[in-house]
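Field notebook, page 361. I keep forgetting to write these up properly, so this time I am using the form the group agreed on. The chain and the ligand, iron/sulfur cluster, are recorded exactly as supplied. Prediction of the bound pose follows.
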Amino acid sequence: MKNNVDKENIKKLFDLIYNEAKKLKNKINLMEVCGTHTMAISLYGIRAQLPPNINLISGPGCPVCVTPIQEIDKVIEISEKENVIITTFGDMMRVPGTFSSLEEKRAKGKDVRIVYSPMDALEIAKANPEKKVVFVGIGFETTAPAVAMALKTALKQKIQNFFILSFFKIIIPPMIALVNDKNLKLDGFICPGHVSAITGAKIYEPIAIKYKMACVVTGFEEADVLTGIYMLLRQIISRKPAVEIQYKRVVTYDGNKIAQKILKEVFKTKDSVWRGIGLIPESGLSLSKKYERFDAEKIFTVNTNYSKEPKGCKCGEVLKGAVKPFDCPLFKTKCTPENPVGACMVSSEGTCAAYYKYEVN
Ligand code: SF4
C-alpha cells in the first residue's frame, strides 16, 4: 500500500510528465520490450493516467510469447519420444501448440516436469541416466547465463544424457526491426531492466545513435516507470536521443562481465524466428562448438511443417505493438487466462494477460 510520501512522489512525477507533454508537437509512441514492464504499466494503471499525446505500446518482451509456435510444437513432439524427460519452467506448460500443449501431454502420461532452474534439470538427468533429459531454454540474455552454468557443470561432470533446446533470443535485433517498421513510428524505448543488468546499457548505443531513438533503462516500481517516461520525454523534446539509466540501483553501463563471458563461451548467435515478427538475422542463441553435443535439436529429428497459429489469435500483431489486445475479437470472450487461445494470454508476463487483469477498454 502506498503511504502519503509515495503518493506525493507519484503525483509530482505525473505533474512533471504533464508539463513536458505540453511541449510535444505530435503524439509520441514509447515501447516497452519487457514483460515485467508490461505487467507493471498495467498493474499501476499508468497507461490510462498519461496525457493523451503519450502512447505506450507493448513490444516483444515476454519470453513465452515470442517463442514461435513451431518451437512449441518441437518440444511437444520431443515429449512423445521414448525415454525422454522434458523439463521446463511452468509458464511453458499451458502454451498452446498447433494440436496440443505440454500440459495435455503430461496428462496423457508423457514425462514433462516443471523445474525452477536448469540446475534442477541437470539433477534430474543425473538421477535418470537411462533417460534423455531435455531442458527447454527460452527467454533473453537474462535467463541464458543460468543455462550456460548448467552446461559448464554438465561438461565438467561428463553428463551424457542432458540436452538443451536453445530457443534463447537477444533483444537488440528485434528492437531494430521495430524501429524500421514504418507502421509503428516509435519515438523511444523503455529499455528492459533485467536484460540490461546482464548486458549493460551499452547495448542500446546503436539504437540511440544510428536510429535516433530515445532509450532509458528503467526499473519496475511505479515511480521507476514514471521517471523513465519523464526522462524519455526530456530526450525527445530536446531532440537529443541518448542512452540513460534510470534503474541505477541494478544496471550499469557495462553490465555483468562475468555473465557476458560465460554467455560468449557457451553460445553463439543464430538467425531466429520471433512470433509476430518472423525471422530476424542473428537474433537467437545456439550452442557453441564446445557445447554442441548438448544440443537437443541435433539429437531429435522432428518435423513441424504443420505448425499453425491458433485461428483468430492476433498474438503476433500484439507482440509487435500493431494492435492492442482489445482489438482481438477473442479477447475476454473465447480467450481468457483459464482457457487461453494464444501464448500472450498464458504467460504471467503476456500482454493479453496484463490487459485482461488490469486494463479497462
Ligand atoms: S486475446 Fe487471446 S487470442 Fe487474442 S491475441 Fe491475445 S492471446 Fe491471442
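OBSERVATIONS:
- The mean pLDDT is 95.
- The domain at 64-170+255-299 is CATH 3.40.50.11740 (Rossmann fold).
FOLLOW-UP: compare against the apo run.
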